[in-house]
Amino acid sequence: MKQKNNFSGKVPSKLIAVIIALVITSCAQRNLVYFSDLPPSQNFEAPVKNYVQPTIQPDDIISITVSSLNPESNVLFNNVILPSGANSGGAIANTKVTEGYQVDKSGFINFPVIGKIMLAGLTKEQAIEKMTSEIKVQVKNHIVNVRFLNFKVTVIGEVNNPSTFLVATEKINVLEALGLAGEMTEFGRRENVLVIREQQGVRRTARINLNNK
Known about the structure:
Elements: H1 13-28, E1 61-67, H2 71-78, E2 101-102, E3 108-111, E4 115-118, H3 124-135, E5 143-148, E6 152-155, E7 163-166, H4 174-180, E8 193-199, E9 202-208
Antiparallel strand pairs: 1-2, 1-5, 3-4, 6-7, 8-9
């Protein structure tokens, strides 16, 4: 004889209330505040210990501009279009770069007149010093400026605007990167953020806790 099944297919209202309560409790326990362990009533100071200047690496694209008192030299090194009436007198001539220089797999760029120059492993300041030294043989009283054209950061995961962003300042921290991506959503795990960097041909990963100051 089959036993009568008393289950009607409806979830009891008390069970629904318990499930809702558990969900609410679970959400309430999540820590969505950055650096939540900071003291609320006093200032906090800590030295920046992990700042590293970016260095030029293979496949980087860099802008190199040379400015001097000689417009002809500017054209020679920068592939620029001279403004009408330009001459060798007066202030330093303005330059207009048409494209950047891509660092090859061996770390060299191919610069006009000078030829191949090794720049991989150098910071921007070191690259400026080296380019200035190389160019002074050809031009006197010149100014060299070096800038990254492909300095970028990619933010993916539980953020409102996942994307790849070009960074003009050549320096960015995790909070600034998250700001570009429109902040983490409420589902983002602030206590477990994965950071991936590539340096000198090595990919390094680290996990950080943004609830921790």
